Amino acid sequence: MIKKELLFGIALFLVILVTLVISLNLASAAEYDYELVCRTMGQVIKFSECNPGMADNTCGGTKCQTCTIKIFNETTGSYIYCPASINQCNARGLSCSTIGGNGTTELDTTPPNLTLISPEEGKVYNSRSVLLDLKSNEIADIYYKSIIDNGNTWSPVCVSCLSYNRTRSFTEGLNVLMFRAKDVVDNANYYNVSFIVDSRLPRITKTAPRSGYASGLFEVEFDEANPAKPELIYGNDLTGFSSALLNLSACVPAARGLSCQTYVNLSDYNEGEIEYYFSLTDIAGNSVKSRSTKLKVDTLAPKINSLSYSFDRSIYLILNITEKNLEEVNYIDLSDTSGRARWRKLCSRLTNGICESRVSFSDGPHEIEVLVLDEAGNNATSTTSFFTDTRAPRISRTYPSSGLTNGI
Fold first, then answer.
1. Which of 57, 210, 285, 331 is deepest in the core (most CB within 10 A)?
2. Of 115 and 150, which is predicted with more confidence?
């Protein structure tokens, strides 16, 4: 059977021959002839000396017969060999001969040199369909296997080929591949390449605040294995929009992916309105945006003008507060050593700026902290201390109880 490389050589022969006649300073076109070359396993005809773009031909069986054109190079004083159709040798009734001087008597002990053009080392691809583009300097069987997945299974790329250029499907995430190129006499070479496939679009699962007021603190939660650029975009049509890049190293694991917070100064928008959304780009260049949300802006913290208490069988905590958008007022007893201390609500509305509520405490010293929150999440705190003693005194014994006394 005529090998693929011989057919390729025949197609190019006429062009090559004219080039060789000129470049090799041949006396005439008659200084070439056909020769039927015989070889045994591993012996080589160096067709690369005929044309650098050709691959050398290695005998892969016990005996090989190859029709060649033998051309004398006057510059070097030796012959070079180019591929020809076996029909040309048969038509001339040529018998088998063994030639030397261009490596045909030498065994092929050199493995194929594989040039891997794609996939590229360390590159990130945004599709699972990745171009597999490679070239070999000689006819070879080329296979690959995944080192981190099914590391014992070799998948064929091409057999008896010089090149390959087609797409293959690879797994999502990190791929580490080993390629093997083996020539007809089993000389083999190995090449490794690693790359990342990230074809899935990022997914923003949560943003905050979702309604009401904005103070400047924003939060986003997203599901993405390879985030590269999380960004907050905020502003309005009157003043324009600004952006703030989030610090990925400050993000924390969440129920679905990562949760990130950022703070921006919204004082220029106070008592006005803004619109905001998050955008997220992964390392493969895939991008997604969250739904846009409109919020009123309140950047001023509540002001606690006074904190006092009164006692009338119960303790009353009384706060004078300046805040237009009150969310609630809470308190905690910092002196509680029972392990049950927690924040408790005092009030969720003000009457003429006053929050007053009755609370119960056990007898003893107490240090109370109050926390005032507005609807934008701004807060203010204050503390007060007092001592409670609700039990009436009790005389349990007197002396002397009878008889006489001496004044004691």
1. 57
2. 115
